Amino acid sequence: MKLKRILLILFLAIGLTGVSFAGAYDDWPDDAVCMWLDMKPTHEGYLGEAKKRSLTCEGGKAVVGAAPAKTTATKITTSTNKTTSTKSSGIKFYAIEFTEKLRKKLFDSIKDFFVEVDTSTKFDGQYTFQLFRTGDGTMGMGSGYITINNGEMIIEKDKRALGTGPKDLYDTFEAQIDENGQVYGSIRLDILGGKDRSEIYTLKGPIKKILGESPDECCLKIYFQLKPIKESSTSSTKVKVATSDGDPTVSKIIEVIEGDRFIVDIAEPHELAGSNITLIVRDIDAPDTIKSCSKEIELGKKVKDIVTQKLEDASSIKLKNIRKTSKAVIAQVIVDGKDLGEELVANDYASKEYGYWKAYICSAVKAISAGEQYLWAKDFEKAIFWLERGLVMDPDTNRRPGATYGLSLAYKQLGMDHKDYLIKAAELGVMHAELELGENYLNGWDGFEKDSSEGKYWLKKAHEHGSKDAEDACGCKF
Fold it and tell me: Quick check: 368 and 397 in contact, CB under 8 A?
């Protein structure tokens, strides 16, 4: 039986909640846009934001007095006679209260643009999902279960994980599937993990890989990867038996594929008992040993050897918190009373974040990009972690100046000593670092000893690199 539903992609995008969500850069000051545009002059996002604001940038600063964008005052009246007006130099956002009468009128006026979805029961069942972020490499964001019932898709509340925001964001997921396996829907997500950075993503694609588009074309995208869970059929008269403590025991390690993936035999008596079973350690990601950069593969083989030896020496290997799929058993692996996954994470042989190792080992550019994103999302601890990791991986990267100044900003925001990074960034020719350092020396700010000569030296450097504020800060002409 088919349930014929009308799915309005436009309404899913705005949620009909009466709230408008700003773009990715809307809370950035003009100088921040110009600073990053100065360091990345070809970045489409920064170019688009500067164009949207009609900014004129020179030397990484917004020019005061440049011709501003035209501003307008606009008034919107709903059926409740409430009005909202605004005055700005770009896109206007309004909070509108939708009454039932206004909703119906709006629906009727644009119904010709609806996407009609014939929902189907063909794909009903339970699925596991992995959620990924793309656009600057691929990074895992979360996982969980999706149930499809009469063509309607929901994310289950149990055993779901989201590394970039509250798990409650999964409750905004709305989707339907047609008889061809095409999914249409939306979800609100915060893909950077910062405050007030969530956006509505429009979902569309085949059930195996559902793509999510942000309203801001310049920004990162997402996708859901689904796999069906096939229930094993058992006789209704079969007696279920278990070990004395209810936990299955691994009787033989046939092969260690990677640090978090093995082929094993599970001992009788237990309903999972059998041979050549794929066992995956739950909730961790060990380095890849097969398909990655050479450094990750090298570490992956090291972790594999450590785990192999640990399992060979074990007198007891039990499984807890088990989930069975059609291809593997996923469980906590308890070796001689200790959780193997927790030990691997504690010793930096595994991570709780899926996709972590590509940025951590393989690409300094990916690590620094992640740090910059966390910096502007105001997650300063993660910004420090990834910026420092990028510089450790490639000290000579051409992104070193910006990353060094970013570390200075992050440490300062956390109230920690940032002087060394600020001095280094200035020495590397970062204009904003030169200006800040000069002001600090001139005025004795931020823990710097007052030194007029040193202050003027760095202010002159900032002036030479295009700063319009250096002479005012100095009170002199260069």
Answer: yes
